[in-house]
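User: What would this chain look like folded?
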Amino acid sequence: MKLTVNGSAIRCLERSIVTTGMAGAPVDFAFDEAWDTISGKTAVFRCGDVERQMVLDENGGAVIPVEVLHTPGRTLYIGVYGATDSGATWPAPTPFCDCGAVQLGAAVTEEAADITPTLAQQVLLAAESAQAIAQSVRDDADSGVFDGADGADGADGADGADGHGLVIMGLYATLAALQAAHPTAAVGDAYAVGTSVSNAIYVWDGSNWVSLGSLAGPQGPTGPQGPNVINADTATTFSGVLVGSGGSVTVQAVDSAPASGSAALVTSGGVYNALNAAKPKVGTITLSATWAESGGVYSQTVTVTGATVTANSKVDLQLGAAALQLLLNDGVAALWVENDNGTLTAYALEAAPSAGGTVQCTVTEVTA
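Assistant: Here's the prediction, encoded as structure tokens.
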């Protein structure tokens, strides 16, 4: 499958058939010159309510995550975004491109599918590889490998030392604050710059603090303004779900006189209750230190405090930089929550968190 990206526009040039259970299906991106200075190009794959992200390789290639190919008949959408050294996304993230429906595979089952590395794991692997290459080149230079006689081939250098994993050593509000506190550092030292919710990771490369971008994906674009905008300049009488005139409005079903003033908003009635129920709710989940293990997958039953969970609720964990670092230190590859008809189960992949704790979550009602 081949896609072309021009600024913030994306188009599918060559569509390939994808099937359920397919692993390693390639997708190639061709970028215009606006993307030449952009690092951390990342593809976003979405199919139904499943979404995965993959960091593109140096040639603009990736493979389609097998998790988005579980359900036949649903449409596969692909988008892409990039990051500058400041951590801002530019050009703006592209819209999603329709890449066709997922076809039913012949025999591969969901249980046999591989697990796609998380975006944080992909960043860590890339950082470790870059660190190992940089250290190898530095060792060669220090040992005089590049100081051979004119025209003669230099001797092969010794293997470089293994790079170390990415360890976030602290959080600073701005890059200037980090530079003031640490004018120099050891190669590979890393700090977060921003807030605990939104930040970029900076690594010392031996002479400068270099941004690796954010470990979290960018915020989605703001949606269009909805209909029925009513304010003090509204001159005509209106009816329907809302009734009133000028800057006065009420719910028709309430059967009362319009409230005076454009600032009087509806806070009761069937319309308000339906809209309020559809909004995501914020709650917390308390994880215990006790996990059941089966085949490298750890689990425990959990409940949400502060928000109501139904059989149709989708529960998403909200992990800050500090909590994410603790999971990485414990060797946890992924942490998520599944809803089985109102019963919530937390799962951890490859390792269980070493200690329990309270984690923020959002609860959203979804329908087929």
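The chain has four domains: 2-104, 119-137+162-213, 237-271, 281-365. If you want, I can go into more detail on any region.
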